[in-house]
Every structure is written in C-alpha cells, then in structure tokens.
Known about the structure:
Elements: E1 2-5, H1 8-24, E2 35-37, H2 38-46, E3 56-57, H3 60-73, H4 83-99, H5 104-109, H6 116-139, E4 141-142, H7 144-152, H8 155-159, E5 168-172, H9 179-190, E6 194-198, E7 209-215, H10 218-234, E8 240-243, H11 247-261, E9 267-269, E10 273-274, H12 279-292, E11 295-297, H13 298-305, H14 316-327, E12 333-335, H15 336-350, H16 354-366, H17 377-390, H18 401-418, H19 421-424, H20 429-442, E13 444-445, E14 454-457, H21 459-462, E15 467-472, H22 492-498, H23 505-520, E16 523-532, E17 534-535, E18 538-539, H24 554-558, H25 561-566, H26 584-590, E19 615-616, H27 620-628, H28 630-638, H29 653-671, H30 674-679, H31 682-703, H32 710-731, E20 737-750, E21 753-765, E22 770-776, H33 794-802, E23 809-815, E24 818-823, H34 836-856, H35 867-871, H36 876-879
Parallel strand pairs: 1-2, 1-5, 3-4, 5-6, 7-16, 8-14, 8-15, 9-14, 15-16, 19-21, 22-23
Antiparallel strand pairs: 10-13, 11-12, 17-18, 20-21, 21-22, 23-24
Helix pairs in contact: 3-4, 10-11, 12-13, 12-20, 16-17, 18-20, 27-28, 27-34, 29-31, 31-32, 33-34
Amino acid sequence: MIILTPNRRLTTFLQREHNLQQQALGKVVWEEPKIYPINVWLEQLWQQTVHAWSYKILTALEQQLIWEEIINSSDIGQQLLNVKITAEQVLKAWESLQQWEISLTEVQDYVDPSVDNLNSDTAAFLTWAQSYQQWCQRNGYLDFYAMVGLLLTEINALAALPNALPEACGFYAFQELAPQQQKLIALLRQAGVKVRELQPEHGMCDLQQTIAIGADDAKHEYALAAHWAQQQLQNGERYIGIVIPNLDECRKDVERIFDEIFMEPKYNISAPRPMATYAMIDTAVLILQLALSNTVDLDLFSQLLRSEFVADSTGLCERAALDVALRELQEGKFSWQFLDTQLIILTGKYNCCAAFMQYYRQWRALMPKLQVPQQSTQAWLAVILELLTSLNWPGNNSNTVVAQHLLSRWRMLLGEYLHLDVILGEHDFSKAWQIISKLTARTPFLPETKEMPIQVLGVLEAAGMQFDKVWLLGMQRDVWPPEPKPNPFIPFAIQRKYDLPRSSPQRELKVAKNLSKVLLGGGKQQVVVSYPQMVENAETGISPLLRDIPRVAAEELVGDVAVAVRHGIGAQLDMQPDVQPGMQSGMQYTQQWEHIADELAPRYHLPITSAVPNTVPGGSKVLKLQSNCPFWAFAEIRLGAKAIKQKSIGLTASDRGILLHEVLAKFWLQVGSQEELYKLSSAAVQVILAAIIQECLAKFKRKRPYILTPDYLMLESQRLQQLLLVWLDLEGKREPFIVYKVEQASIVPLGELNFKVRLDRVDQLISGEVVIIDYKTSRPQANDWFGIRPADPQLPLYCIATKLLAHEIAFAVIRPEHIALQEYSNITNAQKADSWDAQLQVWQQNLTRLALEFAAGYAAVDPLKGAVTCAYCELQTFCRI
C-alpha cells in the first residue's frame, strides 16, 4: 500500500511517526514506508506511460516565464504596470481551470461583449491562454496539470503493466479534492486499486487543554509562543507545533524573535525563502549585474566589495576600509575607468587589498565578452561561470551545510536556465542576467536540516499533523477565516458555479471551519490559540470560529516571562536548561545588575610631529567635541571613529562653506585692500570672482565628476557670485582697510597641549587697529560661547590666541537671507564677565579645563544638551546612549 499526502511536510511527518513506532516495537531494521506527496507520485507514474518520451514537462518557473513572454508581447501587455504579478494571476487561473476541468470554451460562453469593462480581463486571458496552448503544442511541452489530464487517460493501460499501479492507495489528510483528483480516484478504483480517503485521528486525550490568549501585538505574540515552546522543551515535551496562517508574510519577524530566544537551534521553519535572499546567491547575481553595467553604482559595488563570498575572505577588514575611502568621494555613480584609477590610488596609498585587486582585474578583463549581441543559453552559461570564477565566488566561506545545499540548488537553477533555450532563443547578456535574477527571486529554498523538536508551520502544512502540544498564532477575526480573493481572469459566475478556491466568503468560511477542527485536534495534550489585540494601531479580537475557547492571561501560561516580553526584554532572558522550571522566572527578576563606571581612558599620547611639539590634531574641534560630550571627543579624535560618508546629489552645506572660504581667501589675496576694490569696475569684480569660483569648483569637479555636472556647476557659480557681490558691496562701505593676512595659523597653549587655530582673515584699519574677521555661513549663537562647557569654543579660542579687544573681532555672516558684518561687542549678551579682561580669563580657565580633561582621557558619555547634542552626533551606534 502507498500513502499519498498533499505536501512534503506531511510526508516527512508520517515517515517520522512510522519510524518512532518501529523503534517503540524494539526493531533495529524495518522496511521504508511508501509515502509520497501526490505530485511526486504522479510524476513517477507519468514516466511509465508511452507519452513520457513524447513530451517535456514544464517547471513552474518555466511556465511563469512563458506567460510573461506571451503577455509582454501582446498589445494589452504593453499597457500593464507589472507583468510579473499579472502573469502570476494568469497562471493561477489557468491551473484552477485545469484542476476543476473547465474548458476555455465554457469560459468564453460567460463573456458578454456588451459589458466590456467586466469582461476585458477574461477576454485578455482567453487570448493569452490560446497563445500558451499553441506554444506548448508547437514545442512539445506539457505543464503539470496538462500532464495529469493526459495521465488519467492512461490509467487503464497502466493497470495492464506489472507493478505499475499499487494494490492499495490511501489519500491522507486531503482537506479538499479537486475534480481532477476525484477523477483520479475513480479511475484507480475502476482499475482495481483499493483506494481509501484517510483523515488523521483527533481523539482528545484526557490531559488535553484548549485555551485562548490575547497578545498586545503580533511581535509580542511571537515572543510569547517562543518562550512557551522553550518551557515545554524544558518540561520534557518532544514535539511542539507553532502554526501561523500568514507565515510567508511574517517569517522574518518570527525567525528573528525565535533566534533571539533560543540560544541554539531548536526549531524548523517551513516557509521557504527565495534563493535571492541568501547572501551567497545575491552576491552571484550582483557580480553579473555589475559586469553588465556601463557605469558603476557605488552602493552595488560597495556590497560586492564587502562580500565574504568573493576574493579572499581574510581581507574583509581591508576591503571595508577601502569601501569607506571610496565613499569619501561622495559620488553615487562613476565610470569603470574612474573606479579603476581610484582603486589603484587608494590600494597603493593604504597598501591593502592586493588579493582582491588580483581577482578584480580578472573580472574586469572578462567584461568585453558581454558585448556579444546574441548568444544561446549554453554560450552565456559559460560566460556566467567565468565571471563568477574570476572573483573566486563563492569564496572561502561556503563549507557550511546550508551553503553546500545552496550551491547544489544554484547548479540546478543554472541547469534550468540552460533548458530555457527553446523559450528564450538567442539573447543578449542583459536578458540572461534578467532571467537568472528572476529565477533566484522565484525559486524557494529551504535548507535541509535535521528534525527539530519545534516545528513552525503554515496552516495547510500543519493540517493532519499531530504534536504533543500546539500553539495557533494570528487567529484574529480579520485573518481567520481569510478574506475571499476571486481570480480576476475567471468570470465570477464560473467561480461560484464550481466553488473555486478563494471565490466567495461562504467557501472561505466552510474551509476555515474544517481546518479549525483539524488544527484544534492537532495537540495531544494542549492547544493554545492566540491573537494580537492591536494590528496597525487598530483593535481586533479573536476569530468568531474560536470565540468559545476559554480565555486566560498570558501570565497564567508562561509566568513572569509574559511581563518581560511585554516590556521588550524577553529576548534577554537566558533560559538555561539546568535551571529548574519553577525557579526560572524568579531568578530573572531578583538578580541585581552590576554597574561599572568606565569613564576614564588611558592618557592621551600626542603623535610625533615635526612642527610645534604637543600640538593636538583637530585644533578647536577637539575642544568643541570635549565640551559637547567627552566620549564624542574620545571616539572621534583618539579612536578615529566617524560616520561613513553618504553619497550626495550636489555640494553639501559643508562643501559650500569651504568653497566660500576659499573663494574669499583667493579674492583678497589678489585684490588686497578696500582701495583696490574701489578701483575695480563692477564688471571687473565679476570677472575676477567668476574666474576664482571656477578655479575652486574645478577642485570639487575632479573629485566628483558625475554628480557635479556642467549645468549644476554653472548654477552653483551663479549662486555664489550673486551672494559674494552683495557681500563685497558691504565691504566697500566699511572704514578703509587692507587685508593684512588670510588664513593665518596660530598656536594656542592650553595646559600641556597646544591647539592650532586658523584665522579666516586679519584686516588693518586706517586707524592702525587690527580686526579679525571670521566668515560664517550660519548665524553666530552668543550663548554657545559661555559656560563651563561652551558649546562652540572657537571664538573664545580666537580671543585667547590674539588677545584683541572685543570690538576688534567681527563676524562676516554671509547667507542668502542675511548678509552683515557684526562686531563681537555689538552682539547682545556677548559678554558675561564684568570686563573684557575678566572674560578672557574665564575663557582661558574653561578651555584649559577641557584640554586637561581630554589629555587625562576623560571620556564620559555626557551630552551637553542631552538629546539635542546627540541629534548632531553620528556615533550613536557606538556609544548606544
């Protein structure tokens, strides 16, 4: 006798149960049971027919591609926004018609030409279906359900062959039999096969309990179920089921939460992920995608550069540093020639990534092969393998069990691409990459792992399985029963007539009732039903089909863990197997955390410099960071921690500030004084400014040739020139001056350290007085200069360095909405001490204190203005405040 099941998971379960029974009987060796998923058995049966040599069977992916090609090439297809989704719906419609044995002629009879808007989808489907049938006939292909239809006509012929059909056959746990399957059963019986329809026995044992729990939300629900399952394992249970209706949609959250709670593998999850979601396969597709591109996308190349599946994985740290250096360019895209040059410069500068560069050159050398306009799948497959090998894919980290299974499935996938030659014909490399990408995105992959005590399953997979205890999650009223989803390509009248899947609320209710009965009988000792009480900020309740189940609080089921999970610390609970179950929760909440103050780093050792001894790199920025947050200064100045630069779409605010400083410095070095400025006509000033701006912008252009386009630079030049012309007009109205110095460096000793400051400009007035001018592209905030920890100590440092009087310090505020020259003494609240000398002394004391703290290694996480300071810091992931 053979047993047929609806899916592979149920087959595995029955084989496991049979093996346990044999072991319980004391057997050491026994005959393997003949249990198959029904589709596998039908394919085996097909191989014994005379038609097996005449037709090739399409895979599901091949079907999808054919439908997409047919839809794409149609007039209607040209108007569609998403051909892939349309093809998926069309394929489902086609399979439903075959399983329910509904002909295209009958569908055509339901199309009413007078109602165009209601029948346009069906009319399009009929056209595509005819094209699909013609393609299959022309090329000698059958899809699976067409194969089954032809197989049914050969059942009597197979009965005449020895051992072709079994003596007896059991259909186990089929919740519904489609007409095609019902016809199979009838024909098998006619051929003398004893057919039985089997359902699992759901006799409730005395110990069984069925209870319902309301969780705060879905993630709270997953965490509760995981902790409950962990407790059951500690109590000696061996087989636990976690059943989730929408497992495909929530798999990531479920997997993440279960991984946090279980310190070692204890569960299998049935929902397969697409191959493309695995990093190793994603890297392979990326290698092909980048090789195809005319320009290099930085994000994609960064992903390749940092991948452990290319080149030599021992150089990952060096490659990460190279990635950071490339991002300093702040270019989103660049040419291959530009990238080649930058890689040579950067790897030479930092003496790194020699192994990667060797593989990179091999890969680049193969790119001309991709320019061949049209080739067969076999020819492109050879090129694909060359490209992957040239970068040493999959690297040195492919020896795990999952990686080996992935590689095996990848080779099968390439074989599927190879057999698409009849569908694709000769094509370019772009098409080859698209197909490979589609195949990886649509091919599900579930690693082969050993049987685990906890099984996380979807509803249909769990139906028919028996567990010691089972938890049914996500049983809220808007999910169970599911909403109907009639197929838009089959007339609704036909769907209702034949009661097709997902066609009506009545059908979904009937199916959900049957499944509920089966699932509630799936736990030998206990069944827990749960639902989230809030979904997307809306209240919900338990399904009406399950409302009679008695409710309990989560605390009654899992103890104090429920409280911890509710407050987001459930994943931190360390459930050790050697702790007695009754003591676990008490231990978790009575433990005392030990707090260690670690605010003092080793003393700062100055780097050896050939210039002024004991000079701190960074100048006034060191004091600013130390004042705003000591840890920020320690991390950025001493550890070199900094955020990775992001690509920009133009000049950043910082770039514009640097540009303004450079242009004004060059302008005054050339002009020299207000008198010389008077001598220049307006046109002459514009010519000088334009030339200087072009010279300064050229430096940015060389660094970012793709982002800074000629049109963009022209607009930037015009913007800056208009801004500076207004500023220079204001300069002409000042007291006569000469520009004495530009970008003057000065050293300020504070404690045991020296700090370098750079003065934007020093003017000498006709009176002989000296004025320091500091260019500002933001408004000066006087309050930031005062206090024991001044938020912006740059101006106090200038004042200490020069010992000038208050009216001898001025700010050039140059902003589109506000241009002004402000003397320090005229700024409101710009002095807190009784006199200027006293103010200088206070600043000296405060800045010296900051310098001494930095030198001593004081690195407390202590933001000056709390969250306001942290908002400007890019190191939150480091300090984790």
